[in-house]
Structures are given as structure tokens and as C-alpha cells.
Design goal:
The complex is a heterotrimer of chains A (about 280), B (about 270) and C (about 280). Chain A has about 280 residues and is mainly α. Chain A is built from ten helices and two strands; from the N terminus they run αββααααααααα. The longest helix of chain B is centred in the N-terminal third of the chain and has 14 residues. Classes of the chains: A mainly alpha (about 280), B alpha/beta (about 270), C mainly alpha (about 280). Chains in contact: A-B, A-C, B-C.
Chain lengths: ~280, ~270, ~280
């Protein structure tokens, strides 16, 4: 009885990923069989003209996440180091608690702040046509993943053995040298894991990005221009899923956006778990 | 023990899976205010009924009625050929109000003198040929062109009249918004925006400009709309499946009654009669 | 002297400060904006006012959020527990490795992809429609990987000696599981449930198309009825809010949601047997 229960649960979990990818593949099959794989690299998305170029959304997703990590990673690691090395030890748990609670704040609340605080701010300060830009999405994402990066980096830094530090101190290394040569390299695998986890979370983030990115399917000009409205895979799915009629090429193309997102996050995990294959 | 508890909890939850009377309505956000207001009133009159209203857009209502996920759909544009094929005559389209799509601009632009444009000028703005308000007599600032999601009824009507084709592209667009409310707040929060809005959403921050036609400036006023002078207008309809229940039919009757007409006027549209 | 200012430490502090201040300011802003709105009446009533999205209270939204989250947790728990037990009982280390990798993969799948899957399978193929039960099932899938990982960790904390002693006494496998493992780890398991509920409360994308409507539900009368939730309420109001009043309601809802989530996380911390950091 118990065995049966345990085995069936395990099989249910095992089949989860298979079912997930199976259904998404089944739902997006029409678009692949009709248009091949080229549409992923095309840049025109006009569902009612049967043009389903994925490139702008894909590019928007990658660029916003990349910039977000570029901002959040140094800040988050610095905050973790700061909490361990500089903050008096009686305050450390409180700071960490604050960060852990921040990590739990729902993305829709960040979206609300993004739309009513960040977007008008950017619009005024940078004198933009509209504040709904790739930059707004990237900044919002960086604030969202910051607490996660900090908490996980702190865990990694704390795991660096004390005796190593003491030996380094005994050798007369300066504080900065200890941080640079002992702490950071030793904690690097943990920090890398934190980065990849945040990368996954940021890439799949939907509602917050959808509210601030502008949702226009166009590549920025020039490509590194963060101050223009753009599109991400998640925001497109969120905006258009309701309107597409089931089974139409449009619906199928949205499903394939979902499949693409899933493949990208799976790739990120496999990257982070590389040691498992050795 | 633990599992027993779970089984108990699960079964207690699954007991009431059959609903009493359900009436689910979804679709165009342009029609939403009418139906939402009517629903509030109707709920007070019929307490046994569960009446839910949600948005989503005209496209959503067709898809959901077709799948049987809702009892009544709201739509603010004619059905497309593809949609007519899908529905195969199983659904009636019933008009409940008339509405005009206003070309709305930010207050600053309006006060600077942009109070009327020709259809060609509006089209040029949406095609990206005019990109600065100076070119049409406004302030020297770039134009924030607000487009709408392609399934929205407001966009269909606008694109058909102004751009010539209901699915026409708008390469001049700067951002894309969804519902009327989202478009309205985007215009209100900017000082250089132009967008398309149902007239019920106009206010002091979001003003309608007149359309120049044969030398006459035509505003989307109630008089111009009911006289058929204002070019960008449409009926607001609901989709009612032929095999609807009595309760559903009664609610639709309510929408089309004198009382329904009052609600239509109250939220800023014109009744069909 | 301990307090001489080290230039590197100063630099670190300067980089770390924004990372600590921005989240704190964000939290402060929600409390500031929401605090002006919420009152007991705001939480405990749900009367609709005239005008789009205006309501004097968010009771039905709060109820909908909690129903979805608790329901999802109830659906996910047996499967997660079964899978964790399978992992612990299995002697096949290769299989365990694969199972663990699979759980990490499932965890990385973006919530919106689960939403798409739920839309195809539960809403359309099983024709559950946009309903409470569809939302619960989708959220349960989102929760499953984190609950499973949490349950595995909880079970691993049980001392090996206890298991060995129980086996030496001749306990059957089911007796071992029920009388030793589950009893020993029950507090940690409950902690896991509370954290899962907090996580479910913060998800918006998966339930946007599968469980929620804009208005009209005060208390869902069956599992097949749609609900309104705080998350989607904030989303609609943020996106479509036009009157200052509806934005006030959005901030109030955001504060209610954040407080609810924080309560669940703090409760989970308080129950955690090892006490965590605090």
C-alpha cells in the first residue's frame, strides 16, 4: 500500500517533465511543421499575416536578463561580503532576514512599483519618449534577483573554512588580499550557482516585465540601445495568450515561445549542474 | 493519520463541484463597463446567481464562447472570416450599444493647439512618417505613438478607417498597450502621446481631437456619433450561443431593456435604439 | 585599531549600500503607500463600488489567493512526500541522481510555462474551464519541485542511527516510514508546507489564464468556479488603473499580500526546529 503510494508519486514526478515538454511540443508542432525552424531567427512578428519572427522577443529576454545580472551580481556579492565582514555580528541575522523576506515579495508587486515609480522616474530623468523600456525591465529584474544573489552568496562565503582564513591572517595577508585570494575564489562555485539560479528566475519572470517593457516586437536600434521599448518572450505570452484562438498558428507560435523558454531554463540548469555528469 | 487527514480534506473540497447557476461573461474591455455595471445591479436582483465578468479583449470572447468556457461574450468589432468559420452560425451577435473610437492626445499637446488632424495625418503618424508634434502644429517634441494589441476591437475599427485595413501594421508605434484603461493611463502619464480610445475613457488628461473631413472638424460627440458623421465608430455587441439557458437569456434581455439603456448612457456610450 | 577605515572596506560598503538600501526602500514604499489605504474594513469586506475595478475591500481577493495557495499545497504535498520517500528508500544511486537532476530541472521551468501547460491540459483538454481547481493543479505543479527538495532535506536530517536502530528492531518499511521518519521530521515537513504556501501566494503568471476573473466572485461556490485573487487584482489595477482611487486599492492590496506572505514565512521560521539563524 505504502510502496504503491511512494512509487506512483515518484512516477508522477518523473513523468512531469516529460508531460510538460510533450504537451508543449505537441501544441507547437503545427508551427514547426509549417515554418520549419527559421522563424526563430526572423524579426517580424505579425501573427495576422502569419509572420512569427521570434528574434526581437528572444533578444529582449536575453538582453534584459544579461543587464539585470550585470547590475545585480556585483551589488549582491558586495552586500553579502559587507554583511559578513563589516556589519557587527549582532545585526547580521537581521539583515539576512530582511533579504530573505525581500526574496519572497511577489513579482506583481515589483511590477506595480515598476510601472508607477520606476517608469515615470526614467521618463523624467532621462527625458525619454516613454519610460517603458528594456532598461526599466532590466533594472526591475536586477532588484528582484538581488536578495536571492545576496542570500546564496552569503551562504557560500560562510562555508569557506575558518582555519583557511586564520592561516592567511597568520601569513600577514591584508584584509583585501584575504577576500580576493581566499574568500571569493573558495566561494565561487556557490556564487556561480546563485547567478545561474537568478538567471533562470529572471528569464521566466512574466508579469513584472510585461508591465514595464513596452511590449513592442522590434529589435532595438542600435542593438545595445536599452532606452527603447522592446519585447520579451514572457511578456508576449502574457499579452497574447488570451486572444489567440486554440489551434491557430498564432496559438501554436505562442506555445513554441513557451517551449523555447523551457529549453533555455533547462540549459541553464544543466550548465549549473555540470559536475553531475563527471 | 496524516494521509487520512489529507484524504478527508480533499474529499470535503471536492464535494461541491456542481455549481448552482452560473453565468460567465468575458471579452472586450470596451463593453466591460456596461456589462460590469449591469451585472452589479443584476446580482442584487437575483441573489442565487453567480455572475462573473472579466476582460481579455474581443478575440478572447470568441475563443471562449467557442470552447464553452463562458456563457456570454463581449465583442467590439465585427467577427472576422476565420472566427465566423469557427463559430459556424452557432452564435448570435446582439448589439447593445454604439461607440466611437476617439483619437486621444495628452493634455499638453491638445493645449498647444493640436485639436484636429486629418485621417491622412493620423495615418502618417502611425506609419512613422510624422514623428514630431511640430509637423502638425504642436510642440517641438517627439510623438509617443500608442498602438494596441492586434486582437482588440478598438484597433480593428481604427485600423480599418484610418490605415485602410483592419490588420494593418503600424510601424510608427512606440509602445503597445492592451485594454482601454491601460491605453488611457499611458496617454495621461505622458505629455506627448497619441492613442486610440473608446470615448467613454476620455477625461481632462486625455482629450479627443477632431477629425478633419471635407474641411469640417468632426469631434466624437454624441450628436456626431448618432448622426453617423464621425467616421470611426462601431456597435458594441454581445455573443450569445443559440443553445443558451433561460437565465442567460434573461440577463441579455435585461441588457437590452430600458434599464440597460440607462446604464449604457451612464457609462458614456449611446444606446442602440 | 579596529575602526581605522580601510579604503577597500570603504569601497565595499559603497558598493554594498545600494544593494541593501534599494530593497529596504522598496519595502518601505509599499508600507507607506499601502498603509494609508488598509484598514480592517479594507481586509474584511468586498463590496463593489461604482466604477471600474473600484471596491471598498479585498476580502474576496484575499480569500481567493489563500484558497488557491492552500489547495495547491494540499494537492502537491502527497506527491512531493511520496517522491521524497522514494528517494530516501531507494538503494539505486544512479536513479537518485537522475531524480535529483529532474527535480532541479522542474524547478527551473518558468511558472508561465506551467501556466501554458495548465491551459492546454486542465482548462482545455479536461474542460475544467477557468476555475479554482485548474489553478490549484497548475500551482501544485509549480510547488512540487520545491516541496520535494524540502521534504528530502527534512528526511535526510534524521540521524542514521535512528533508522538503523529501527531496522534492527525489525520494523517493516512502512512502520519505519510512518512511525520513525514522518514523526521525527514532522515539524520540518510542516515548515516546508508553510513556505510552499508563501511561494504559491507570490505567483501570478500561472493563474492568470487558468483560475482568475476580474470581478464578480465573492466566494467561489464550487471547485469549478473561477476566483479573484490579490495577485491578479494588483496586476489588473496596475495595468489598467486610471483613477487615483484604483491605484490606492492596488497599493493596499500589495501591502495585504506582502504581509500575508511574510506571516507565512515567519511562521515557518518560528516552527523550524533548528531555529535557523534567528
Amino acid at each position: 500500500m505504502l510502496r504503491l503510494f511512494i512509487h506512483s508519486s515518484a512516477w508522477l514526478s518523473f513523468s512531469g517533465l516529460l508531460l510538460l515538454s510533450g504537451f508543449l511540443l505537441y501544441a507547437s508542432w503545427p508551427i514547426f511543421s509549417e515554418q520549419g525552424l527559421y522563424f526563430i531567427a526572423e524579426s517580424e512578428w505579425y501573427p495576422y499575416e502569419d509572420l512569427f519572427g521570434m528574434l526581437p522577443a528572444l533578444f529582449g529576454s536575453l538582453l534584459s536578463v544579461g543587464v539585470a545580472l550585470l547590475i545585480a551580481l556585483p551589488l549582491g556579492v558586495a552586500a553579502a561580503l559587507f554583511n559578513i565582514e563589516i556589519v557587527p555580528s549582532c545585526l547580521q541575522p537581521w539583515l539576512r532576514l530582511l533579504m530573505e523576506l525581500m526574496a519572497g515579495i511577489p513579482s506583481v508587486v515589483y511590477g506595480l512599483m515598476g510601472l508607477w515609480l520606476l517608469v515615470p522616474f526614467l521618463e523624467q530623468q532621462l527625458d525619454l519618449l516613454t519610460g517603458r523600456t528594456l532598461l526599466a525591465a532590466a533594472l526591475l529584474l536586477s532588484v528582484m534577483v538581488l536578495p536571492t544573489i545576496m542570500v546564496l552568496s552569503e551562504d557560500a562565503l560562510r562555508k569557506v573554512a575558518d582555519d583557511q582564513r586564520q592561516r592567511a591572517n597568520a601569513l600577514g595577508l591584508s584584509w583585501w588580499a584575504v577576500v580576493q585570494r581566499i574568500l571569493l575564489p573558495q566561494a565561487w562555485p556557490g556564487i556561480r550557482l546563485a547567478t545561474l539560479l537568478s538567471l533562470g528566475r529572471a528569464m521566466g519572470e512574466t508579469v513584472a516585465v510585461m508591465l514595464v517593457i513596452g511590449s513592442i516586437d522590434r529589435l532595438p536600434e542600435p542593438l545595445y540601445n536599452l532606452l527603447q521599448p522592446a519585447q520579451s518572450l514572457t511578456s508576449r505570452i502574457g499579452r497574447e495568450m488570451g486572444e489567440a484562438s486554440v489551434g491557430s498558428p498564432h496559438w501554436s507560435a505562442l506555445m513554441s515561445s513557451g517551449l523555447l523558454l523551457m529549453l533555455m531554463s533547462v540549459a541553464v540548469v544543466l550548465l549549473s549542474q555540470r559536475r553531475w555528469f563527471k | 493519520m496524516r494521509r487520512l487527514l489529507f484524504i478527508l480534506l480533499l474529499s470535503s473540497l471536492s464535494l461541491p463541484t456542481y455549481a448552482a447557476e452560473r453565468l460567465r461573461i468575458a471579452g472586450s474591455t470596451t463593453v466591460l463597463p456596461i456589462v460590469a455595471e449591469a451585472a452589479k445591479l443584476y446580482r442584487q436582483l437575483h441573489s442565487g446567481l453567480t455572475l462573473t465578468v472579466s476582460g481579455g479583449g474581443s478575440g478572447v470572447s470568441v475563443a471562449s464562447v467557442n470552447r464553452g468556457h463562458i456563457e456570454v461574450g463581449m465583442i467590439s468589432r465585427p467577427l472576422t472570416e476565420r472566427e465566423q468559420q469557427q463559430l459556424q452560425g452557432r452564435v448570435q451577435v446582439i448589439p447593445i450599444a454604439r461607440d466611437a473610437v476617439a483619437i486621444a492626445v495628452s493634455r499638453v499637446v491638445y493645449e498647444h493647439g493640436v485639436t484636429q488632424l486629418t485621417r491622412q495625418q493620423i495615418a502618417a503618424i502611425y506609419r512613422g512618417e510624422i514623428t514630431n508634434w511640430r509637423e502638425v502644429g504642436g510642440p517641438d517634441s517627439p510623438i509617443l505613438v500608442i498602438d494596441k494589441e492586434p486582437s482588440r476591437g478598438t484597433r480593428h475599427v481604427f485600423a480599418k478607417v484610418v490605415l485602410g485595413d483592419e490588420w494593418a501594421r503600424a510601424p510608427g508605434a512606440s509602445i503597445v498597450t492592451g485594454s482601454n484603461n491601460e491605453g488611457q493611463s499611458a496617454i495621461a502619464n505622458s505629455d506627448k502621446a497619441i492613442g486610440m480610445l473608446s470615448t467613454a475613457w476620455l477625461n481632462k488628461q486625455v482629450l479627443a481631437i477632431a477629425i478633419m473631413q471635407n474641411g469640417k472638424a468632426i469631434t466624437p460627440s454624441q450628436g456626431n456619433v448618432s448622426a453617423g458623421l464621425y467616421p470611426i465608430q462601431r456597435t458594441l455587441d454581445i455573443l450569445l450561443p443559440n443553445n443558451h439557458s433561460e437565465t442567460t437569456g434573461a440577463f441579455v434581455e435585461f441588457l437590452r431593456s430600458e434599464q440597460g439603456g440607462d446604464i449604457v448612457r451612464q457609462v458614456g456610450y449611446l444606446p442602440v435604439q | 585599531m579596529k575602526w581605522t577605515i580601510h579604503p577597500a572596506k570603504l569601497l565595499l560598503t559603497l558598493v554594498a549600500l545600494p544593494a541593501l538600501l534599494i530593497p529596504a526602500l522598496a519595502l518601505g514604499y509599499i508600507v507607506y503607500q499601502g498603509g494609508a489605504v488598509i484598514s480592517w474594513q479594507f481586509i474584511s469586506t468586498s463590496a463593489e463600488l461604482s466604477g471600474f475595478g473600484a471596491s471598498s475591500g479585498v476580502f474576496s481577493q484575499l480569500a481567493g489567493s489563500l484558497l488557491l495557495a492552500v489547495g495547491a499545497c494540499i494537492v502537491a504535498t502527497p506527491v512531493a512526500l511520496g517522491t521524497a520517500l522514494f528517494y530516501q528508500l531507494s538503494n539505486n544511486s544512479r536513479l537518485c541522481h537522475h531524480l535529483e537532476l529532474l527535480i532541479y530541472l522542474l524547478q527551473a521551468v518558468p511558472p508561465i510555462v506551467y501556466g501554458l501547460f495548465g491551459l492546454i491540459l486542465f482548462v482545455q483538454i479536461f474542460s475544467l474551464g477557468v476555475s479554482l481547481i485548474a489553478g490549484m493543479l497548475v500551482l501544485a505543479m509549480v510547488l512540487l519541485p520545491m516541496l520535494t527538495l524540502n521534504n528530502i532535506t527534512s528526511l535526510q536530517r534524521i540521524a542514521i542511527e535512528q533508522t538503523d536502530a529501527a531496522r534492527a528492531l525489525g520494523l517493516t518499511e512502512s512502520a519505519l516510514v510512518l512511525r520513525v521518519w514522518l514523526r521525527q521530521s514532522r515539524r520540518e515537513l510542516i515548515t516546508g508546507q508553510l513556505l510552499a504556501i508563501a511561494r504559491a501566494l507570490s505567483e501570478t503568471a500561472p493563474i492568470l489564464f487558468t483560475a482568475t476573473v476580474f470581478s464578480g466572485v465573492v466566494w467561489p461556490d464550487s471547485l469549478l468556479s473561477p476566483v479573484t485573487t490579490l495577485q491578479t487584482h494588483i496586476f489588473y489595477l496596475a495595468q489598467e488603473g486610471n483613477h487615483p482611487q484604483s491605484i490606492d486599492v492596488a497599493w493596499g492590496s500589495a501591502l495585504v499580500l506582502v504581509i500575508t506572505i511574510v506571516l507565512f514565512s515567519l511562521l515557518a521560521r518560528a516552527l523550524k526546529p533548528s531555529g535557523g539563524n534567528l
